[in-house]
Amino acid sequence: QVQLVQSGAEVKKPGASVRVSCTASGYTFSSYYIQWVRQAPGQGLEWMGKINPSGGITSYAQKFQGRVTMTRDTSTSTVHMDLSSLRFEDTAVYYCARGAALAGGSDYFDSWGQGTLVTVSS
Amino acid sequence: DIVMTQSPDSLAVSLGERATINCKSSQSVFYSSNNMNYLAWYQQKPGQPPKLLIYWASTRESGVPDRFSGSGSGTDFTLSISSLQAEDVAVYYCHQYYSSPYTFGQGTKLEIK
């Protein structure tokens, strides 16, 4: 079965960077986009961007342009999401999710990681 | 950006009764070339990630009980739960994947009356 397993919780200071990782199993890693969505405490869902695991091409939400970088390691079926210049308001649970099939699909998110809490605190 | 607005923000329904959640998009998410609405619904229970319920506005994800149904087209959509069960208590989100940036509704909290 499809599984996305994320790295553990992080506590960072303002201005620092954080890396959240997402390891996929149960399907062909390079055949589906991986999306990143975050959820601030008690708030709704916010899309951050996506990566094509096959070619590494990314698409980021304008809000995060310049601060977010998504990369992949096909040897370990892992996607990394780096967020820099952290602010208090970046405190959130970060989720990876599987999106569209590269062969022709659409970006509803059919499987989700368990979430990674990133806390930005001085 | 397409703004997704759900109503109501919260809803209390008796067990066995029907629950209806609405979602309105600021512009159409209907793609005429394939006749599809790029709209999904998710359920999120406390401490858990969202779970896909419905995609293409009305297609139920595998394993989702048939008491869940989606309808609508263009800019107006509805998620219905025909006979509320205790395990349906959750927050529900609509999501447009018509254009980037993908956006979500603010969520509707469903409780038991």
Structure notes:
With 122 residues, chain A is mostly beta strands. Helix content of chain A is 0%, strand content 50%. Chain A starts with a strand and ends with a strand. The model of chain A has no long low-confidence stretch (mean pLDDT 96). With 113 residues, chain B is an all-beta fold. Helices cover 0% and strands 51% of the residues of chain B. Chain B is globular and about 40 Å long. The N and C termini of chain B lie far apart (36 Å). In chain B, 37% of the residues are buried. The mean pLDDT of chain B is 97. The A-B interface holds A 35, 44-47, 59, 61-63, 95, 97, 106-115 and B 36, 38, 40, 42, 49-52, 55-56, 61, 93, 95, 97, 100-107.
Distance between the termini of chain B: 36 Å
In quaternary terms, these chains amount to heterodimer
- Please give the share of residues in helix of chain A: under 10%
Radius of gyration of chain A, taken over Cα atoms and rounded to an integer in Å: 14 Å
Class inferred from helices and paired strands of chain B: mainly beta
Order of helices and strands of chain B: EEEEEEEEEEEEE
Number of DSSP helical runs of chain A: 0
How many strands appear in the DSSP assignment of chain B? 13
Largest sheet of chain A: 7 strands, mixed
Summing up helix and strand content along with how strands pair, one would put the structural category of chain A as mainly beta
Mean pLDDT of chain B: 97
Q: What key phrases describe this protein's structure?
A:
heterodimer; A: 122 residues; mainly beta; 7-stranded mixed sheet; 50% strand; globular; B: 113 residues; 4-stranded antiparallel sheet
SSE topology:
The complex is a heterodimer of chains A (122) and B (113).
Chain A: E1 3-6, E2 10-12, E3 18-25, E4 32-39, E5 46-51, E6 58-60, E7 68-73, E8 78-83, E9 92-101, E10 111-112, E11 116-120
Parallel strand pairs in A: 2-11
Antiparallel strand pairs in A: 1-3, 3-8, 4-5, 4-9, 5-6, 7-8, 9-10, 9-11
Chain B: E1 4-7, E2 10-13, E3 19-25, E4 30-31, E5 36-37, E6 39-44, E7 51-55, E8 59-60, E9 68-73, E10 76-81, E11 90-96, E12 103-104, E13 108-112
